[in-house]
């Protein structure tokens, strides 16, 4: 095959292809086919000077990509997953296969990068993983993810001595709300309660929907968390939650909270049973 034929074949290929070359300032593109220009939407790819790889790659992926390129061709046809950042700030995830530049090489050290867009596949995989571990109504972690994080929290507690705090929360009168106004109103109440509990918790805490009208808050670093203050903060957050009904009116719901310090010697079910008892004590106190 003549060089011109090879160039035309690669130029017209639907597979985004880049040539990159090492320079004193780092790796830089020397050529890009039309598919690459369209995929990455960077005008510099069409310029003779090319674009610095550091201006194309996501900062978190740059060091790994440079390490791969610096090793050069090893005969291993591994595809690498890198994220490129377009000039408008959007990110495209690609799988990259590195190979020889062939007749298009600009000089020694030039490498060819064949890139195919896997953004949709990655997004769908992440979405499926999220759905598998989160409640579809509230978006909160489900019971399985709560248990996994609880195991990890206990593992950290063995190293740090910081025992988690566990709060068991139950929506008051959800059955009556469902019976009187329908399950859409009940679902709305659950979503609002989830938002309130999340807002009253720290980023490092886990707020999970345990099932039905029950939620669990797992707060790590007990020395930094005063249990009664946490319980009061959660109670205040869910004491008077407005829920819009289908007829446009508003109903206010509340949530009872029972809180205990975790006991690593007991099973999570036993700890939750203790928190559940405290929750019912809280429910009885507020009814009396």
UniProtKB/TrEMBL annotation:
Any one annotated GO CC term: plasma membrane
The organism's place on the tree of life at top rank: Bacteria
Domain GGDEF: 162-288
An MF annotation (GO) of this entry: diguanylate cyclase activity
GO biological process, one term: negative regulation of bacterial-type flagellum-dependent cell motility
InterPro entries: Diguanylate_Cyclase, GGDEF_dom, Nucleotide_cyclase, PAS, PAS-like_dom_sf, Rev_trsase/Diguanyl_cyclase
Alphabetical list of PROSITE patterns matching this protein: GGDEF
Residues that span the membrane, as ranges: none
SUPFAM superfamilies the UniProt entry points to: Nucleotide cyclase (SSF55073), PYP-like sensor domain (PAS domain) (SSF55785)
Pfam families according to UniProt: GGDEF, PAS_8
UniProt name for this protein: Diguanylate cyclase
Originating species: Kineococcus radiotolerans (strain ATCC BAA-149 / DSM 14245 / SRS30216)
